[in-house]
Design a protein that fits this description.
single chain, about 70 residues, globular, about 25% helix, alpha+beta
């Protein structure tokens, strides 16, 4: 599994976590939300990104946190 950090504009409510494959949501003081969580493969990552698109979130940053050995 590979962990990802995704930052979006605006503050997302915690209830979106279930729709976004269980990513943990942290609201930042700068008005953004940070989502962190593991994904099994690129298809799952694209699903999370599609979910963010579907709720109208603006993608600010996408960063891989670690990679498979």
């Amino acid at each position: 599994m590979t962990g990802y950090l995704i930052r979006v504009g605006g503050h997302l409510d915690d209830h979106w976590s279930a729709r976004l494959d269980g990513f943990a949501i942290t609201r930042q003081a700068d008005g953004t939300s940070t989502l962190c969580g593991p994904v099994r493969d690129q298809a799952e990552l694209h699903g999370v990104l599609a979910g963010l698109r579907d709720i109208g979130a603006t993608l600010v940053e996408l960063r891989r946190l670690d990679a498979d050995p």
